[in-house]
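ok so I'm stuck.
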Amino acid sequence: MRRPRLGGTVFCAALLLSLCIAGCGKKAAVRTPASAPPPPSVTPKPVEPAAAPSPDRTTPVDGVSRAGGAARPSVAGPPIRIGLATTAREVRISAQGGFYAIERRPEATRYSLEGEIEVRLEAGESYGEGYRIQVASLSRREAANSLRDKLEEAFGPPVLVRLNPETSTFQVRVGRFASREEARAFAAEKLAPVGYTDAIVVRDAMETAPLAPRLALRGTRGAFLISTTGFLFTPGSAAGFLRFNGKPYRGELELLINGNGLITVVNQLGIEEYLLGVVPAEISPARYPEFAALAAQSVAARTYALKNMGRFRADGFDLTDDTRTQVYGGIAQERDPTNEAVWATTGVAIYYRGQLIEAMYTSTCGGRTEDFAKVYDAADIPYLRGVICAIEQQQPERGSLTLTAAVRPPPILRTSDGQVANRNLELAGVLGLSGSLAADDAGAPPSAKEVERWVGKAATLAGKGAGSDGRAGNDLASRAGFIRYAAARLFGGEEIARRISDADVQYYLGTLADQGEIPPEAHRTLAFLMQAGLWHPFPDNTARPQSPIARADALHILVHWTEKARPGILRSGTFSGPTSPEPDDPNPRSISIKWGNRTGQFTLAPDVRLFRAADSGSTPVESIRLIGSEKLRFHLDSDNRIDFLEVELSQTGASSDRFSPVATWQVTVKRSELNQKLRGFADSIGEIVDIKPALTGESGRVVRIELVGRRGSTIMNGYRFRGAIGLRDTLFTIAREEAPDGSIESFTFNGRGWGHGVGLCQVGAYGMARAGRSYEEILKTYYQGVELRKAY
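replied:
not stuck anymore, here's the structure
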């Protein structure tokens, strides 16, 4: 197996003394840090070497799911060493069943261990002989520690508590003396006068000089080993796994003391086993379950590992377990779908002109990847150039769907203030507030009975009781009369009166051009609705309170208020795909909708109404194409069929990474905070007053950004800027918020993507897999001009 070059290794004196106790029965003392109990002087039992554990173990570990669908390959791949920790002072190693430990030195004995062992970093000392005064031998450690503290306070250190393993008593010993005579004199002059007349002088091991730090191994049944070179742990059987601090890992675990005097923990295993804990950590198989995407990630991760083998050789391992290389979570991270993807692609790697590629990958590319050279200000790499992250061919994508309304939508109808009313008028019919409304009738005022019926049904849908109906003194056909009556039923007349003061009325209505025409009894209602954002004046700043209200206006207002009063009246979700296996089924009968962590199938009513939603409003459409990730709002009829469907097209368009939760993002940074984060990058230009994109790549990423200061300006690499500020990506635009004096107070970054934007787009790979592309097609899309072949 590959291991870092080892220097000279020696047993420390404490280990030799410990072995003497086990073999000859002589007593010897081993000094331990004051904060730790003295170790039992027993070494684990040596065992004959067993056959090496199989690299493809299949036995489950407690609490760990195992894949069981595909046949596991017999090839484990080249061995790889993964650094799990480099700053540890204390480590716990365990296994289900027994396991083995061997010191990292030539011809070392292998020891059998059980349960959980602890390996602690300790300061090393060399030992010689001297004398101490044993004051007491106590059965309880607490009593011995208490006496030690008392003696240290009276006579000063050193006062030691030593475990006698033969009697299981704790011996309290005072001082360190070169001769027996010196010790006796101290006992007679200092200890006897204060009551310690039974103290005896004993010969003891003495630390004489500091040595290199050491690892002290303590386990069950008094197991105790000390080493200055480290330990290698292996499972006790082919079906076994080791745990590091409770977390299970395949392969072997190695502990060594690094150049900083701390513990480095290394997991050594085959690359294929390693990938089982990498792929699900890099792409979630629960969120992105398409096999081709998981297989593409497996091949990219394998290629990365092979290409970067030995990157951290000076530290004793090849790769880290974090984002500095590839995230690796061991057995606990493994999942069945990603295990299958790793096994199905065993040994496959990516090559360019016969050489392994730098298989860079990014979470979400924002619709297009970027050139490596531009992101990193480095030499061009031909296979790491920007590409469009989308299916550009004309044939329909798998998972897409075109919905067509059974009846052509009616002409556009507008309210008196110019808003498109079709959506709310159709929804009023679906909800049962009104029947179908002809265009000629929409502009005419409703009768009082119509108003009472509509408002009554709206109040029932909103879950409101009878309450105050607001009819007293009202002309229900006038705009002010209708608004006051409907608001009282839906929001409560008494509630409106309580919440709005005379000052509020003046504040909200005082600037209206026709405020004098508003009936006094409607003042508080209009002020309440303006405050809540439920009503606004006409574009000419009038309320037109006395004019008749049109049916279209009345129903438009009622539906809007009903949705506000009862937000769940329409259900919400995201289009997950068609239920028909055929792409672009001309007569789809149902669709899949996802909400939260659930996905359900919903039947479409034959007369389903279709609308496309946007910031400007909702427009009726005859047909609409769904490709995945569109936001939906829908209503179910009495037969649980969708009879009203409103579609909000994805802001990310048709890009394959549109399924990412961070496909779009927004971050606002105060200018003062930006100056603080860029301190050290732009000291020469003084306080930064503005920032401007200086150069963008083919994807639109800011590859260079200008920092404008009070004493000049400088150009900074966009990727370094992103890291300093803490942005998700460099694909962003900048909006500025200015103070009254014209200075910039903050910058808002409206961005897309997450990561460096180079190479394989992980979520884009899922989108392409969902559309029917193979893992080979996906990889050759993002890595241009490459070939896939077996590395082993």
